[in-house]
Amino acid sequence: MKKLIIILMMLGSVYSQCLGDMNEDGIKDILDIVNLVNDILDGDDVCEEEVDICDGLTEVELWGEYYDIESTTGLDLGMHGLTGSMPPEIGCLTNLTYMWLGMNQLTGEIPIEIGNLMNLEQLNLYGNDLTGSIPSEIGNLINLTMLDLSVNQLTGGIPSEIGNLMNLTTFNLSYNQLTGEIPPEVCTLMASINLSIWWYFLQGNNLINTCE
């Protein structure tokens, strides 16, 4: 009973904060209420709204420099002593064809907004201190010919969506902390680009499955 009272109090607070007006009978659709209670129990922020971080921007600031969204086609910032995390605004530079951020001191996770860079052909994040999992959104970058995420501290499994990157000629995930099985889609990809020594590009992890 105590738990139910707490939930009802939370529900009332949510109504007053972010659900807007109720209908003329003062009763919201019962299915909406059930879904809302489930979200609260799951710890979700039911008031959270999706915000387009690129909306209205003509330029973005990255590590103290400003880049025009329309005209910037490349980021060549390897070995520039960059620190901190990769700003999600990097995903606003949708005309990028190459991004070289290797050999810096970048930390934190690879932002999921990187999946917006559909024109990207080369992505090099080699030799940083990036953590977290490889975002599945990288599988959106079907024009990639080079993907190098090696020598970081990435964890979790290899997303099967990487198997979508059929234009790859260079592929390196070595020396991270990746675990689990190599997805069959990735094995197929490596076979298609003739990575006969595929293990070299995945060594230094805790992966299982030999793609054989």
Overall CATH class of the largest domain: Alpha Beta
Structure classification: alpha/beta
Poorly predicted runs are 2-17, 19-31
**Mean pLDDT, all residues:** 82
CATH fourth-tier homologous superfamily of the largest domain: Ribonuclease Inhibitor
- Looking at the overall shape, the CATH architecture of the largest domain is Alpha-Beta Horseshoe
Count the DSSP helices.
3
Main sheet specs = 5 strands, parallel
Structural domains: how many: 2
DSSP strand content:
15-25%
What is the general shape? globular
How is the CATH topology of the largest domain named?
Leucine-rich repeat, LRR (right-handed beta-alpha superhelix)
Please give the number of β-strands. Answer: 13
Tell me the series of helices and strands, N- to C-terminal: HHEEEEEEEEEEEEHE
Radius of gyration: 22 Å
Strand order of the largest sheet: 3-5-7-9-11
Cα(first) to Cα(last) distance is 57 Å
Helix content: 10-25%
Helices and strands in order:
Blueprint: H1 2-18, H2 30-41, E1 59-62, E2 65-68, E3 74-76, E4 83-85, E5 98-100, E6 105-108, E7 122-124, E8 129-130, E9 146-148, E10 155-156, E11 170-172, E12 177-181, H3 184-192, E13 206-208
Parallel strand pairs: 3-5, 4-6, 5-7, 6-8, 7-9, 9-11, 10-12, 12-13
Antiparallel strand pairs: 1-2
Short description:
By secondary structure, the chain is of the alpha/beta class. The chain has 3 helices and 13 strands; from the N terminus they run H-H-E-E-E-E-E-E-E-E-E-E-E-E-H-E. The chain has 2 domains: 2-41, no CATH class; 59-208, Alpha-Beta Horseshoe (Leucine-rich repeat, LRR (right-handed beta-alpha superhelix)), CATH 3.80.10.10.
